[in-house]
Amino acid sequence: MEHRPLGRTGISVSKLCLGAMMLGPWGTDGDEAIRIIHAALDAGIDFIDTADVYSAGGSEEIVGRALKGRRDRVVLATKLVFPVGDDPDPNRRGASRRWIAQAVEDSLRRLQTDWIDLYQLHRPTPETDLEETLDALTDLVRQGKIRAFGTSTYPPSLLVEAQWVARDRRLIRPHTEQPPYSILNRGVEAEVLPVCERHGIGVIPWSPLAGGFLTGRYGTGGEEPWPASPARARLTDIFDPSLPANQVKIRAARQLGALAEEAGLTLIEMAIAFVLEHPAVTAPIIGPRTMAHLESQLAAADVALPADVLDRIDEIVPPGTVLNPADAGLENPALDAARRRRRA
C-alpha cells in the first residue's frame, strides 16, 4: 500500500488508517476484533487510530492485544479529552497538564506499549489555556512517551492559534488534524484543509462514509430499523433517516451510488477515494465493524477517480457544502447562549 508523509513529523503512514472505535465492547469485541486488526495489517495498513473514550478504554485494550509482536511496525495513534466511562471527576477529562500526565499513562498501559506515535486532542478545550496544553504535550515528546501530537475537529482559527502559540513559546507544534470529511460533509474544504496545507499539518479525516450514508444501504429499504444502536440513538440529528436534513443526504447518496455504478465502482470505493484525492489529506480513517466491512473498504486504496467523475460529484454536492449542519462537527463555543450575554 502507498505511504504518505504524516505532516512534517518525518513519519510515513499507509494511505488508509484503521479506526478502532467499533473494535471493542461498543462493536466487535474479542478474537474477532483482533482478526480484523491483523487482516488490516496483512493488507498493508500500518496506521491505527483509537481513543481512550472508545468503549471506555476497551478499544485501546483490544489494539494493545492485537499488536503484540507487531508494535514496532505500526504507527499508533490515540486521543484524550473526553471522560472515560462514567467517571464524574471534572479533573479526569480535558487537556490540563494534570489530566494529560495521567491520561497518557492510562493509555500506555491499556495499549501495552512504551510510546504512542501520535497523541491527539479529541476536541477543543477552551476552558484550558492553550499554552499549558502544548507545554504538557511537548514535555511528553521530550520524555519519549509520545512521538508527535495533533488535534481533532478543530476550527481553522484555533489550528492557526496553536501554531502561533507553539512558535512564540518555543514549544513543539501540533502536526496533525483529524476533521470530519466526506462527499456529504465538505465544509472543511473551505478553510480547515487549506490551513492544514499552508502549515504542513497532516490530515486524517474521520467518517469518510458519512456515518454509513455512503455505504449504499440507505434508501434501499433494507437498512436496519432506527435506532440501530444506543450510540446512534444519542445522535438523532445525524442518523435518524426520517429527519429532513438526513433525507437530503439519502437523496444525494442515491445519486452518488448511480454515479459510482457508471464508473464501475462501489459507492464505498468512490467515497473513500474521493477523500483521498484532496491534496491536503494524508489518510482517511476507515472504521470496519466486520471483516466484510474491512474488505469492502480496502479496495479504495487502489482507486484513482478521473476528473469527469470528480466533476459529477461536485454537481451533486458542491465543494464546501455540508448537507446536514449537524454533521459538521465544528462546534463554536462562542455561539453558546452563555457567551452571547444571555442569562441561564
Structure explained in plain terms:
The chain has 344 residues and is an alpha/beta fold. It has a single domain (3-340), classed as NADP-dependent oxidoreductase domain (TIM Barrel), CATH 3.20.20.100. Helices cover 37% and strands 11% of the residues. The chain contains twelve helices and ten strands. Strand 7 (146-152), helix 5 (156-168) and strand 8 (176-178) form a beta-alpha-beta unit. The chain is globular and about 55 Å long. The model has no long low-confidence stretch (mean pLDDT 93).
Describe the biggest sheet? Answer: 8 strands, parallel
**Overall helicity:** 25-40%
Number of discrete helical segments: 12
Q: What structural category arises from helix and sheet content?
A: alpha/beta
Q: Which CATH architecture? A: Alpha-Beta Barrel
Order of helices and strands: EEEHEHEHEHEHEHEHHHHEHH
Q: Regions with pLDDT < 50 over 5+ consecutive residues?
A: none
Distance between the termini: 53 Å
CATH topology annotation = TIM Barrel
Number of strands: 10
| CATH level-4 homologous superfamily | NADP-dependent oxidoreductase domain
Q: How are the strands ordered across the major sheet?
A: 9-8-7-6-5-4-3-10
The radius of gyration over CA amounts to 19 Å
In terms of DSSP E residues, the strand content is: 5-15%
- Summed up, the domain count is 1
CATH class: Alpha Beta
